[in-house]
Write a structure and sequence with these properties.
Blueprint: H1 5-60, H2 64-73, E1 81-85, E2 91-94, E3 110-116, E4 119-127, E5 134-140, H3 141-160, H4 165-176, H5 178-188, H6 205-255, H7 259-288, H8 291-296, E6 299-302, H9 303-320, E7 334-337, H10 341-352, H11 354-357
Antiparallel strand pairs: 1-2, 1-5, 3-4, 4-5, 6-7
Helix pairs in contact: 1-3, 1-4, 6-7, 7-10, 9-10
Length: 360
């Protein structure tokens, strides 16, 4: 089953488009995820910095317990967990839902991943200068992932809008193939006798060489048809002359009462028919010829040896007419040959003596 050019073009374009779109989308997803993770980590560090400032201020005013109570009253389910520990390991402040135990066992500043109540958390730890308070802020990973998906989907929305462009690609390919359709329609609508060159003014460069080859083929066909027409006219003329002469001689033989005149007329008619027979044989030989194949099979042959063989075949016919053939020959004469050598040599012998060549 032949695949159309339209199908192959669309397949290649769609594969390229989908592959490129997937690579860009994957890269955008990875980059957006990395940026979102950095933003969430920055938020944790900023919250820890804010807690450090507030804790230092409230500790100076001895109002940490009231500050913790206010935080519990404003509990928000999705807010991060946080704890403030003194330098001697005493829990000073903890946020709503924060446990009594440390969020992380890390004793240096930085980020860590912890499991709390079978949930994954991202924990940031820092220390305040001077009093050495340890501040830990934690955010649930599932919450981060949910916000991350919202952020990434927003980033990929422009790319999703590019998917309907597949339909535009189909229309673009259809329009690009319009000249090919017009060319096929023009060639299909041509009659067998219309061998004029195809107009190549609006032909795309991709098929320009094809149109040139078709025009060259049309030119060769015109030349071949002209040669065939000329050959047919010449052949008809060559056949008409001996046929008309033979008919005339036969009528003359029928009209005369003289035996010698009738015999002479019949001999002339027989001569014309022999010539007609020879021409028919030559036409059949030409019809059997394949010029390309013949051109490829040329080789040396001994003309004298071949002539001796053909003359031997015609010797009985020549003997009937009282013209025995000369079977003497010279050796060493070679020519190029192609096809049926014996048949062609017989034609030459027949042209030398047509009556004897046909066996009369």
């Amino acid at each position: 089953m032949r695949q159309s050019l339209r199908f192959r073009l669309l397949t290649l374009i769609l594969i390229s488009f989908v592959t490129g779109w997937s690579i860009i989308s994957g890269f955008a997803w990875w980059r957006a995820s990395a940026q979102a993770d950095r933003l969430f980590d920055i938020q944790l560090s900023q919250l820890a910095d804010l807690l450090a400032v507030v804790t230092t201020h409230e500790a100076g005013e001895a109002d940490l317990h009231q500050f913790a109570a206010d935080l519990h009253q404003s509990s928000v389910k999705s807010q991060p967990l946080f704890q403030v520990w003194s330098a001697d390991g005493q829990l000073l402040i903890r946020g709503p839902r924060a446990p009594d135990l440390p969020l992380s066992g890390v004793t240096t500043r930085g980020y860590s991943d912890e499991i709390l109540d079978d949930e994954r958390y991202r924990v940031y730890t820092r220390f305040t200068p001077g009093d050495g308070h340890r501040i830990q802020v934690a955010q649930e990973v599932a919450s981060r992932q949910m916000q991350l998906h919202v952020f990434v989907r927003g980033s990929l929305t422009p790319l999703l809008l590019a998917l309907p462009m597949i339909g535009l690609l189909w229309l673009a390919v259809e329009r690009a193939l319009t000249p090919l359709k017009q060319l096929a329609a023009e060639i299909g609508a041509r009659t067998p006798d219309n061998l004029n060159p195809i107009y190549d003014g609006n032909i795309p460069s991709e098929v320009f060489s094809l149109v040139q080859a078709i025009n060259a083929l049309f030119g060769r066909l015109q030349i071949s048809l002209k040669k065939f027409s000329r050959f047919s006219a010449d052949a008809a003329h060559e056949l008409r002359t001996p046929l008309a002469g033979s008919i005339t001689q036969i009528h003359a033989a029928l009209d005369t009462t003289d035996v010698r005149e009738r015999q002479a007329s019949l001999q002339q008619a027989l001569h014309g028919l022999s010539r007609l027979h020879r021409l028919m044989e030559q036409l059949l030989t030409l019809a059997r010829l394949e010029p390309d194949a013949a051109e490829l099979t040329f080789s040396h042959f001994d003309l004298n040896a071949l002539a001796v063989d053909v003359a031997a075949d015609h010797a009985p016919c020549a003997a009937k007419g009282g013209k025995p053939g000369d079977r003497g020959s010279r050796t060493g004469e070679f020519l190029w040959r192609s096809g049926d050598d014996q048949h062609r040599t017989a034609q030459l012998v027949g042209q030398r003596d047509p009556l004897h060549a046909v066996g009369w």
